[in-house]
């Protein structure tokens, strides 16, 4: 597997997904190495090949470094980015996953420099989708930018780890959980502002738990910064909260939505493309405009039966994104076609 990101040094969702996929594949008896700019994940059961870089434009230089690596000993190359220079067949099977679209993100990202970077990365995605033997997207709407891609394989979540807790596991007072960044498209700062404005007046004992590394000390009354949590602590936070909210401008998929739903937690979100897909166009969540998220949360915290109904709908929807089901699909894609098997035999 090729991924610039891994959880050891990055909060990008792609890295967490690669870690989960590689771990599940090893459980099934495969040998897996992850080629990454990030250092090894402590305790990982898969192999790691570190491509160490420094300086500017590392994501683009990483792709050049990957091209120089010896890859012929692998049966499958599964790239989650940065494989656009691998236009000659270097392995029997080359699979590429597009985790959203950088073109789509460029429409919403703030800052001219970041927007240009996203457009350039989008061009690399276009090239990579042609270079690979098989390209997949994680949600159907991404095919708007890559209409020649037909395979849709969503991201997967370990539903044995993210699962409803025992009766009485919820906190004794209203708790809203957020997983993301304070700044940027995740809109953590805006959520905290609306929580103080709209939720606290109606629920004075309510708290907003923010799993984030950049929450300021003066975030507001009831806003509690949890920092970065390990897997066990994060799963526990999902089980204890009353509602989950991630009001992003853009999500290429939105793994935290699935983690929350699999934990039996009702979700409030904005109508970004990833949330709409994961929540089945709002059938398994409350989808509200960004400016109305605070009011939607206050209403939901006051309505126990509605929270229970949304939790049931979300739990049922989350089964479509269970990690074993996703890996089953990838194993099908890893199997080479008849011409590829013949070419491999000839080599």
Automatic annotation (TrEMBL):
Keywords: Glycosyltransferase, Transferase
CDD domains, alphabetized: GT4_PimA-like (cd03801)
Protein name per UniProt: Glycosyltransferase subfamily 4-like N-terminal domain-containing protein
Domain Glycosyltransferase subfamily 4-like N-terminal as annotated: residue spans: 13-161
Keyword match Phosphoprotein: no
Highest taxon in the source lineage: Bacteria
Pfam families registered for this protein in UniProt: Glyco_trans_1_4, Glyco_transf_4
UniProt source species: Isoptericola cucumis
UniProt-listed InterPro entries: Glyco_trans_4-like_N (IPR028098)
Keyword check for Flavoprotein: no
